[in-house]
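Board notes (copied after class):
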Amino acid sequence: MIRTPSRVTGWAWFEEVGDAVVAEARAAAAEEACGLLVGRRSAEGVVLVTSIVPTPNTEPPERRRNRFMIDPLRLLEVEKSLRESEEEVVGFYHTHPDSEPVPSPVDRRFMELWPHTVWVIAGFTRGSEPPRIRAWCRDPEPGGSVREIPRADPPTGHVRGARRDSGGVTGGAKGPGRVLNEAEFPSGKRKK
């Protein structure tokens, strides 16, 4: 289950996690790729994405160029697998094969259903390589707006090699932005 945190104020991920999203985008080619973002939240509202779980795009094939759908049973499976961990599903990612990484009207409607989550979009525009990556969220208050979330560096001292874990990719190095302190993120097992 996605817990309700404070307002999302920023996001970070390790280099290998971003590389995995880009690889998924390239592999999907002309269709939207999609998946789950797994990680932790700081008390200040910064979301640290530690892994991704790629999921099939379950939209009908003729709609996959500009639509995605994540199987809700897969989401429940991943949430269940994380119950005893310090991590949770913190958001979603998808690609725009031929447009900017900006939420479409359909994306915005989905965001209304999932406030407090990070929505990473990797967009290819006019053959851009690599894709541009931006993150968004919807503020939860009535009439809340969709806004871009600033990117931060992942915590120092937390770098590890990429690995597959429960269908996801974990790992990392730093990206641009504010450097987070490992102490900003809670650790330890969650209660059921």
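Comment from the instructor: The helical segments are 15-28, 72-81, 105-113. The CA atoms of residues 42 and 184 lie 5 Å apart.
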